[in-house]
Write a structure and sequence with these properties.
By secondary structure, the chain is an alpha+beta fold. It has four domains: 1-17 and 144-313, no CATH class; 39-138, no CATH class; 319-411, no CATH class; 443-519, no CATH class. It has 16 helices and 18 strands. It has helices spanning 24-33, 43-48, 91-95, 99-102, 124-127, 129-138, 153-160, 196-210, 228-247, 262-271, 274-312, 330-342, 345-353, 405-415, 422-442, 490-502; strands spanning 4-8, 40-42, 71-82, 88-89, 105-118, 168-171, 175-179, 184-188, 319-327, 366-367, 376-381, 385-390, 396-404, 446-448, 454-460, 465-472, 475-483, 517-519. A five-stranded antiparallel beta sheet has the order 10-9-13-12-11. A five-stranded antiparallel beta sheet has the order 17-16-15-14-18. The model is unreliable at 1-21 and 511-520 (pLDDT under 50).
Length: 520
Amino acid sequence: MYVRFGGRYGETYRRKTTRRPIPSLLMLHCEKEGYTIPRFCTFDCVQRLNKPGKDGEELPRVSVLKGEKSFPVMLTTFTCIHKETKEKIKYDDYKNLSNDEKEQYNVYPKMQVFRVFNVAQTNLKEARPELWEKLEKENGHPFVHEGEMFSFEPADRMIRDNLWICPINVRHQDDAFYSISKNEITVPEKVQFKSGESFYGTLFHEMGHSTGAEDVLGRFKPTTFGSKEYSDEELVAELCGALTAQRYGMTKHIKEDSCPYLKSWLDNLKESPQYIKTVLMDVKKASSMITQKIDQIAKDIEIEKAEKEKQTEAPKEKMYYASVAYLQMSDDTKQLEELKDKGDYNGLLALAKEYYDGNGMDEQYTYSSPLQNRGDNLLIEDQNFAVVYNGSVGGTYDIMLKYTEQEVRDHIRRYGIGRASNDVKEVAKAMVAEQFAEIMQKKTPVFEMPNGEVLYINYNREKDTLDVGSATNAGLAVQHSFEYNHDKALDDNLTEVNEKLENMEEYCEAEEMEWGGFRR
């Protein structure tokens, strides 16, 4: 026989809560007073809102409403003092020390009490409506389209991939519970709940139970139904579920089957006020375990989405750099040197642009990278220009105009590549390869020779040739290669190759001459 914690699934939750964790007592205080925004501030914090804005602008004053009472919040701070040197360090730094190093310090805890007000106890809504609206959005109820059920992807991923400290079984039945003996959680399917939020609230409740396992937080061991230990554990799980739900902007109400334990909890609290402090410590540990796991899963999901978006983003168009002015004389470089030495690269770029005479691209000095020589250093560039400095040859400046690959292609179509750089020639080769691939998709281009022989043709990008030969299982058996003329279109190149082949004796018939032609 085993004890299980839980019961029927919860009701629909309607109260708005914050996405950030707040102390357990403040969360309960919000529930009691009906505060829809769980944000609190001290009296001094309210006063700091009344500092003048930008340019000394006076803003409407924010103040605590007359008759409102504060709520006490206890905060423990720690003073860490070195035993010998008496040097003080921050507690966060102390926690990062090794155990041996910690032995050298005395740690003194100090309990401080702060009196806080909820933002609803101030006139913030009237004085600063923009700030109030921002807080409402940050702490609002998760948006759900009509007819849809709210989904929380990190929790769904945790269930699907079995990422929690114990298995979570989602089954079509009426009970939600954690089994101590089996160390597993069972919850009904989400569609059985009145809302998606109530499903996750119930899930967080049972996850809270699972943190109490002997090898985890060790809160409980198998006990009898209805005992004090059982009652205490239900309180921890209920508050843990509520805190976790509000951490992720979900609403949470007390489960109906937890109500019978309320009298027991209140009796214990009356007998010993320390009881609630002990319970809340357990709640904090349990909820921290849950939120840390969910936050890590959420982070992993965001990373995956970012990677996927990066992969689906349209690749940026490749840029090419055309030299428009090469400066090496001291009269030309003096002002540029002065700006470079001052670190005024924006001024340097503005001055360099004045050397551009407005002429078009010179394909002979157009490259895929602005760095072409040893010692080249790209000082600065913007959308249209780049300045390259080389200090190894006396200090030269190369002002370069940037072109997109599409602009380089258009230039090749107009002017060819008779005097182009190797980088521009590679673009031309790519253009021919793309054109030839389009032809191949429709029909393999062949030449029908006068003697009836059929020759196949292919573009060899590596050699930049049109290769002609017979087709074999291993591919094209090349018999002739013709250099591709980029000053002419593909059709013109094919026509020229066909004419050259027809004039070859090996493809002519002495008695009956048939003029061949290429077909596609």
